């Protein structure tokens, strides 16, 4: 995850290990299109995503929407895509892509990134675009404890 507004000189934040492990146990990820300190551009059309993708995108206004859109497109192609993103429910993408098509799990409290050294600046949610044959999305949202 990178800082949403780009105001910090270092915008690389590791996903909390326990959260990632819990999600990986459930979804068995085989690709991360935007890993910490990536040497490739996960948005490049030449980069092939997996069947089960974990996406903790940069939170800036340019990259976050592009990763959400790509995750949606990968889902339309048959993949499962799990995103860790700010809980921004007033955005066009939330209403047009996420709400009608994905399961949304709101996280309780602010996440602590970088092994607990950095507290997130925003509330977070897990967005799950389930593979078409997987269970349908939950409409009410689910809280993660």
Description:
- The protein is built from 3 helices and 7 strands, in the order αβαβαβββββ.
- With 145 residues, it is of the alpha/beta class.
- A 5-stranded mixed β-sheet has the order 1-2-6-3-7, with helices on both faces. Strands 4-5 form a two-stranded antiparallel sheet.
- The N terminus and C terminus are likely disordered.
Quick rundown:
The protein is of the alpha/beta class.
What distinguishing features does this structure have?
single chain, 145 residues, alpha/beta, 5-stranded mixed beta sheet, two-stranded antiparallel ribbon, 3 helices, 7 strands, 24% helix, 20% strand, disordered N terminus
Question: Counting H and I runs of at least 4 residues, what is the number of helices?
Answer: 3
Question: Strand sequence of the main sheet, in spatial order?
Answer: 1-2-6-3-7
- State the secondary-structure class: alpha/beta
The chain-level mean pLDDT equals 86
* Radius of gyration computed on alpha carbons: 14 Å
E-strand count: 7
User: What is the H/E order?
Assistant: HEHEHEEEEE
Share of helical residues: 10-25%
Shape: globular
Major β-sheet profile: 5 strands, mixed
Uncertain runs with pLDDT below 50, 5 residues or more?
Answer: 1-9, 139-143
Strand content: 15-25%
The rounded distance between the terminal residues' Cα atoms is 20 Å
């Amino acid at each position: 995850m990178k800082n949403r507004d780009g105001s910090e000189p270092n915008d690389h934040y590791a996903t909390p290990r326990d959260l990632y492990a819990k999600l990986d146990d459930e979804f068995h990820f085989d690709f991360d299109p935007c890993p910490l300190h990536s040497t490739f551009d996960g948005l490049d059309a030449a980069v092939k995503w997996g069947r089960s993708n974990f996406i903790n995108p940069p939170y800036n206004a340019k990259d976050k929407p592009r990763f959400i859109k790509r995750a949606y497109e990968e889902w339309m192609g048959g993949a499962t895509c799990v995103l860790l993103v700010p809980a921004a429910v007033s955005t066009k993408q939330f209403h047009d892509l996420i709400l009608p098509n994905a399961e949304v799990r709101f996280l309780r409290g602010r996440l602590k990134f970088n092994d607990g050294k950095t507290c997130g600046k925003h509330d977070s949610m897990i967005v799950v675009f389930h593979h078409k044959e997987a269970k349908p999305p939950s409409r009410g949202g689910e809280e993660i404890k």
